[in-house]
Amino acid sequence: MGRPRTNDAAVRERLVACATEMFATRPQESVTVRALATAAGTSTAAVYTLFQGKDGVIREVRDQAVAGLFQDLTAVPGSEAALEDLYALAVAYRHWGREHRHLYAVLFGGAQSFVPSTWVGDRDPVRPLVAAIDRAVADRILAGDTTLIAVSLWVALHGLVTLELAGGLDGTAAETAFRSTIDAVLRGWATPAAFPGLRRPEPAP
After folding, report:
1. pTM score > 0.85 for this model?
2. Distance, CA of 150 to chain centre
């Protein structure tokens, strides 16, 4: 009887799926190569063959999270209104986080911590956000350093999504908190001339 395959696509997919959940729900140091292999129904040799060990699995999971968020945010159609684009990007970010809770946990505080950087790469998920902020600053709707504005908006988004994933916000409360928080952040960076027009009307009950 031949040896079971340790390097095919199905094994790789199972390892990544199991690692995503484990890294998102357990302390990183408790996730061993043996535990990963057992959860995926394969051998430790498969982990080393496919990923060169635990660190390689972590990189793969994080790369998939980055790629997924980047894909969803770049899919948001642009418009002539930078602020509308910013709001649409915030909605897309929230949707991705809620739909991919384990990937979100790994990307923003699970297996690896997220550190905002002043350099934005071509495939960085925040690139669409930074581009929209740049436009809003150029149009004199927002005033301030683009990186600082982006970080403050991300902090608000991350807090909202984290609370939703933890069950601290749901239903109408979550919708209201999301809308009012994003509006407040944008108004906080608004120029005096743009400030009065930046409050979104409350939806009809």
Report:
1. no
2. 14
